[in-house]
């Protein structure tokens, strides 16, 4: 498991003024209040007028300053509301460019510890080939990303789903789970995931799950354990989350590999895009000390 410490001092909230992004602000304010953290509210204006200038170079459209002023005023209003409701400070930023790349850039510039953003979920062609801005951010971000859909109106996390598999970095998220559980008084539901075609490796998975269980017990975190076998592990995870009335699923980022050598992007993407409860995506750590091995379990 990861030895990297996890703390929350600055939370970035990308805002497009949609219902889901406004809901993300509520989650951010609640978490910031609990962790005594500060918020950074970000709106990215995509350069649609620049694209138009390329298509029709004889018609030049300047960036409408009135729109920028309106956006900045709206952000300031939101900042005031958040401070009044949750007692947390926030900084407002308006920029332009590609949404996901600007979010990642601001994350580095402002030393962000957690991104909280709304996702509308995608399906079909978009899910397979393009993905949402939220999913792109979870893939590129160096800090955890909490994604919320419009259904996720409950604040706080009483029941956390912690999926564990035989992939290289699966247990690196355990420390993050402990930090959250301590702050929210959560029960962590460990779910061991094994592909039905790899059930010969179930003993190895059970050993890893047992180590996680022991670590949570030592940390005095309430927990449960279940092993699930099947072909679609994302679907199994979401079904189990419903079964235990979970309000958070914690997964590793897109770079994670399984024993077959395939990237687990499909699993992470399905969870982020289809979970009706918040999903926290943790970027994997690389290097010798960061590897999730049986010889370095904690």
Rg = 20 Å
Poorly predicted residue ranges: 51-61, 123-131, 256-264, 293-298
Order of helices and strands: EHEHHEHEHHEEHEHEHEHE
Strand percentage: 15-25%
Average residue pLDDT: 82
In the CATH scheme, what's the topology name of the largest domain? Rossmann fold
How many strands appear in the DSSP assignment? Answer: 10
Fraction of residues in H or I helices: 40-55%
What is the CATH H-level superfamily of the largest domain?
HUPs
Which structural class do the helices and strands define?
Answer: alpha/beta
Count of domains: 2
What is the highest CATH level, the class of the largest domain?
Answer: Alpha Beta
Q: What is the 3D form? A: globular
Architecture of the largest domain, CATH level 2? 3-Layer(aba) Sandwich
Task: Tell me what you see in this structure.
It is a single chain. This protein has 298 residues and is α/β, with parallel strands linked by helices. It has two domains: 10-148, HUPs (Rossmann fold); 159-282, Rossmann fold. Helix content is 41%, strand content 20%. The protein is globular and about 65 Å long.
Can you lay out the helices and strands and say which pair or pack?
Elements: E1 10-14, H1 19-35, E2 38-45, H2 48-55, H3 65-86, E3 90-96, H4 99-109, E4 114-118, H5 124-130, H6 133-140, E5 145-148, E6 159-164, H7 174-184, E7 187-195, H8 202-218, E8 223-230, H9 233-243, E9 248-252, H10 265-274, E10 279-282
Parallel strand pairs: 1-2, 1-4, 2-3, 4-5, 6-7, 6-9, 7-8, 9-10
Antiparallel strand pairs: 5-10
């Amino acid at each position: 498991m990861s030895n990297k410490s996890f703390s929350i001092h600055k939370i970035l909230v990308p805002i497009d003024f949609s219902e889901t992004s406004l809901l993300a602000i509520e989650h951010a304010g609640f978490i910031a209040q609990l962790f005594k953290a500060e918020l950074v509210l970000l709106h990215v204006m995509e350069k649609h007028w620049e694209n138009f200038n390329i298509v029709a170079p004889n018609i030049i459209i300047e960036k409408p300053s009135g729109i920028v002023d309106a956006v900045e005023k709206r952000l300031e209003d939101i900042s005031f509301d958040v401070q009044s409701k949750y007692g947390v400070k926030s900084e407002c930023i308006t920029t332009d460019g590609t949404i996901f790349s600007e979010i990642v850039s601001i994350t580095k510039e402002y030393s962000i510890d957690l991104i909280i953003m709304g996702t509308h979920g995608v399906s079909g062609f978009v899910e397979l080939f393009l993905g949402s801005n939220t999913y792109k951010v979870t893939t590129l971000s160096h800090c955890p990303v909490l994604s919320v859909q419009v259904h996720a109106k409950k604040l706080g996390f009483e029941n956390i789903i912690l999926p564990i598999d035989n992939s290289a970095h699966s247990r690196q998220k355990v420390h993050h789970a402990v930090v959250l559980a301590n702050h929210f008084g959560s029960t962590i539901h460990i779910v061991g995931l094994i592909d039905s075609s790899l059930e010969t490796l179930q003993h190895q998975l059970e050993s890893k799950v047992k180590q996680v269980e022991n670590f949570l017990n030592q940390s005095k975190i309430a927990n449960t354990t279940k092993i699930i076998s099947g072909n679609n592990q994302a679907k199994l995870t979401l079904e189990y989350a419903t079964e235990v009335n979970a309000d958070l699923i914690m997964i590793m980022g897109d770079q994670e590999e399984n024993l077959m050598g395939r990237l687990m992007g499909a699993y992470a993407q399905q969870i982020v895009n289809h979970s009706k409860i918040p999903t926290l995506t943790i970027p994997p750590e690389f290097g010798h000390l960061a590897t999730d091995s049986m010889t370095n379990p904690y």
